[in-house]
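hey so u asked for the seq, here:
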Amino acid sequence: MRFIFNGLPYSAALFAAAVTALAFMPAAVPGMSVHAQGDTQPSGREILERVEDNQRAVSDAAFNRIQLSSCRFGLQDNQITCAERPRVKALESVSINSGVDNRDTQSISIVLEPAAERGIGMLSYAYDDPERDNETWLYLSALGQVKRIASGNSDDNSESASLFGSEFTTEDQDTGKLEEYEIDILQHSTESGREVWVIETLPNAERARKTRYARTVQYIDKERFVVLRADMYDRQGREIKRLMASRIEQVNGVWTARSLTMMNLVANRLSNMALLEINSGIEVPENFLTPRTLTDVAFREAELSRIRAQVD
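ran it, C-alpha cells below
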C-alpha cells in the first residue's frame, strides 16, 4: 500500500518520530548481551539506548527549518490520500543538549507561517532522569500568554500537548526514561526492504499514569539504528497511532529521517514533519532556550538573526 501526501507518494511501510527521530552509523554497542548460540547481539534496551544517543547527537547545538503539514486522510485506489487541502506551517527549531553527560535536551520551535500564527512557540525540556517530569511551555502570540503544560496523566483523561495542532504530541518527541519500560525484542523481520528488530515497550505502573500508549511496537533498522515504524496501542489493545519515517539520509555521519509522518487511526488524520534543513554545530546563547524567548519578540528576533547568520 502507498499513500499520497501533499501530492507526493510515500511507501506505506515507512513511518517514524520527532523533530528528532533519527539514527546512526553502525558500530559496536557497549555492553552487548551474548545469546546462547554464541552470537553477540544487543538487547532491546541496548538498541533503544543506541537510537536515543543518536537522536541526541543530532539535536545538540542544532538549528532546523521544518515544514509541518496536516490533513484528514482517506483510502482511494489502495492509496492513503489527503481528503482535504493540507494545513501547512513553516517553523524554525533550535535545540541543545544539557545535564549529566548531555543526556537532557532543551528545544524551542517558533511558527513563521502562516502569518496569522507567526510567533506561536513551544519550549520543551526533556530530562533523562525518570524522577523528573519533562516540561513544556506553549506561547500563544495572539493572546500574549505562556501556558505551562504538565506531563500527561491518563488517570484524569488529560493528554500530551499537540505540536502546533498536528497529530504529533509532546510525548512523541520524548527521549530518555527507558527505565520506565519493560523492553523486549519480539522478532527479527524486514520493513521497507530493510532488516529490522521488532521491539515492544510496555510502560511500568508509574509511566502508565503519564502516557496514552499502553504498548508500543518499534521497527528499528539493524544497520542504521533508525526507527522506521512505530505502532502505538491503547489499553484496549487497539492501534491508535502509527509513526513512519522516510528519506533516511546521512547528516554529518548520522543516519537521519528527514520526513516523519504520524497517522491518527482514530481521528483519520495525519501529519507530516519534513526537516527541510538540518544544521548542527550552531552557537546557541545560554539564555535563548528560556521562556523569555517565547514572549520577548525583540530579543527572540535578534538572537534568531544571529543564529540564522551562521547558516545562511
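DSSP finds four helices and 18 strands in the chain. The longest strand covers residues 62-76.
lmk if thats what u needed
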